[in-house]
Design brief:
globular, EC 3.6.1.31, mainly alpha, 6 helices, hydrolase, histidine biosynthesis, PRib-ATP_PPHydrolase-like, ATP-binding, Helix Hairpins
Amino acid sequence: MTEFSLSDLEKIVRERAHSGDPDSWTAKLFARGIDKAAQKLGEEAVETVIAAVKGDKQALVSESADLIYHWLVVLGISGVPLSDVLRELEGRTGRSGIAEKASRPKG
């Protein structure tokens, strides 16, 4: 199997987003806008949690793939490149998660 990355998937999402292909779920989501895409992201998040709690590894893999795909769609519609998220994560690696969370503004 070749190495497949989130960047590869982001590129595919970007290419399909405005393709006009009537058979493209990505094009349909982009056309329907952020509300629909965010709704789908939330649904996939819940399904991922359910699979994890049930201990269903195959469902967890499948639902995680759906979750990541819909997350990239939401980022794409919002104009947020994956590199911005990765940069944020990279900046957090030098401190503990507890300290990082405590440093966030309250509200």
